[in-house]
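Side project, low priority. Logging it here so it doesn't get lost.
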Amino acid sequence: MKGKLFTLLILCFLSFSCGSKNQPRITLDSNWEYSTEGIDGTYHPIDVKDFSRLSTFVNNKKGYIWLKTYFDIPYDMQEQTLSCFLGVTKIADKVYVNNSYIGKSGFFPPKQFTSGELSSAYTISPILLNTDKPNELLITLWVNGKGSFSTIPYIGLENDVFVTKKTKDFLNSNIFLILSVVLLVISFIYFLLFLFGAGRRSNLSFSRVTFFSAFYLTTVSLGEYSLIFEGTYSFLLFEKIFNGIMAILTTNYAVSFIRDFLKKTDTKKITIFRKFIVFFAIFLVLLGDDLNQFYSILNLCYVLMGIHILYAVYLIIKSIREKNNQVVLLLSGFSPVLISLVIGVFLVIFQKSNVILTIVVGWQLTILSFLTILIYNFSKTQKDYENLNKNLEKLISLSKTNHPRIFVNVNAASLDVYKGVKISTELSVREYKDSVKLEEDSEFSYKSTFCTEGTETKKTCKNDFGICQDEFISISQVFADPMCADLVDCIEFSL
C-alpha cells in the first residue's frame, strides 16, 4: 500500500513538474460526429462542449450513442507507441481505431456498471494506425441518466498518457479511498470518546457524520472496488444505497452535529419533522426502478435535504442573536464546503462535469476542519481541568475560616470553556410565581389547584447567577447555621 501510494505521488510530481504539456499530443477537439441509430447509422456534428451532457442526445436519456472523429499522425509521432486518453466516462465505453477494438471501461447491459472516477486510456497497437491517411476513432458509449466525458480526448505518447491517467486517478479516485479509511478511523475514535469519557452529543453526531461520509465516498472511489462490484451487484441498487441513502443520512447527521455543537435541543415537533423528512427521502430513493428515474428522484431528495439544512441555518441565526461564541468556530469549520458550493455554481454556469467532485472535496475539508476544532476544544477542556486541579488546594483553603458553619459554594454553567473565576459576594434570589387556586367543589368542600407560573431570578454582576450567566465560575462563602423560625420571622409555634 505504501509503495503504491509513493509511486502515485511520484507520478503526480512528474506530471506537474516535468510537464506533460511539452509532450506531443493530437488534441481531438473538433470534427466530432454522433449517432444514436447504430454504428452504421446517420451521424450528426457535435461540439466537444456537449460531451458533459451526452445523455440529452439519447431518447429518455437511456441507450447507446456512437461518437466518431478522424486524426492524422504527425511525422514526429509515427515511430512511437501511442495511446488514447478519454478521461472519466459515464457509464461505460468501448473504443475502436480503424474498426479494431482497443479497450473498454465499465460494463454494458445487462450488468451495467461504471468504473467510477477512473480515467479511460487505451494503448493503440502501431499496426492499427495509418501514416499516409486519416485514422478513424470510434467510441461506443452506454448512457443511462448519466452520459459524459470529463475532458477533451487526445492521442499521445504511451508514457505521457500513462502519467496523465495515474495522476488523474489519484486525484479523482485513489485519494478518496484513503480518505474513506481515515474517516472510518475518526468515526471509531469519536464514538469511543462518546462512550468512555467525553460523553458529549457532538462527539456522537460527529462520529455518525464521518461514518456515513466514508461510505458516501464509495461513489467517487468506486473504481478501487472493481473486484467486489464487477458484475456482481446491480448498479441501480449501488446508487440507491451509496449515492442516495448515504447522502441523506450524512446530511441528517450533519444537521444534528450543528445542533449539538451549538448546544441546542430539538423540540418534539422538530424531532418528528426531521425524522419524517429523512424517512420520506429514503422511501422515495427506494421507489426508483430505473437509473434515469432514480436521478430525477434524487434531485427531489436534494430539495428535501435543503429544507432540512434550513433548520440548521435557523439554529445558526438564533445562536448569532444569542451571541453564542461557538458560532464563529462553526462557520469557520463550514467555510470549505461553502466555498466549494460557490465554485460549483460557476462550474454549472460553464457546463463543467466535475461539480459534484468539487463539492465532495469541500465537504471532506470541512470534516477535517471540524476535526481540528473538536481536538482544540478537547485540549482546551483538558487544560481547564488541569488548571482546576492546580487551584484545587487554593479553593479548599477558602473554606478554612474561623466559623465552623461556613462552606464554599462553587457554581458553573455547563460550558466547554470558561472565561475565568470570580468571587461572588451576593447570593442570587429566585422568585417562584406559583399559586394555589381554591374552587368550591360542593356545598361543604373545596378543591385546590396548584398553578405553576414560572420563576424569575435577578441577575447582578455580584451574585452567583449573574457570574455564571457571564460564562465565569462563581465561588462564594455561604453561612449554613440552622436557626429557629421564631428568631428569624417571629413566628409563634406552640402545641
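Brief comment: The chain has a mean pLDDT of 81.
Revisit when time allows.
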